[in-house]
Amino acid sequence: MYVEEFRAKGPLTAAIAEDLAVTPGVSRSSITISSNGRSVHAPVLPWCWDVLRIESGDLVTVTTAHGLGDEDRPAISRFVDRFQALTGGAIPSRTPGARSSAGERAFGVLGLGGRPLPHADLGPP
Fold first, then answer.
1. How many C-beta neighbours within 10 Å does residue 114 have?
2. What is the CA radius of gyration of the chain?
3. pTM value > 0.70
4. Is 33 helix (H, G, I), strand (E, B) or coil?
5. Strands 2-7 and 59-65
6. How far is CA 10 from the centre of its chain?
7. What's the order of all strands across the beta sheet hosting 59-65?
8. How many Å apart are CA 125 and CA 116, to the nearest integer?
9. 3-state secondary structure of 32
10. Three-state DSSP state, 84
11. Which of 10, 74, 81, 113 shows a CA-CA span of 20 to 30 A to 95?
12. Nearest alpha-carbon partner for 19 in 71, 78, 74, 67
């Protein structure tokens, strides 16, 4: 399971929700979007996007789980990049060989109940 939190760059709309529901490359990972005390699974986002009430600046949490092998890590990257692009945020450059510590994601493995596993390195708080 991977978890990523970020601030929405703009509001979630019906059109964006439809686009996000079919993000390529994430078909085997279960993706859940949470905000404002509500959670929705990505495949049903076009029908219940409005319960999330995501506006610019709102905290959004995306989780991925149940992918085969290590599919959850690229799935969360693709989904969050697409979400930010569609709501007005910039996507970081993916130029091969060009690495910078700025903007890197911190991924962590969570145990049952959402608590970090004792050996999981979650990076800085």
1. 9
2. 14
3. no
4. strand
5. antiparallel
6. 15
7. 2-7, 59-65, 30-35, 38-41
8. 12
9. strand
10. helix
11. 10
12. 78
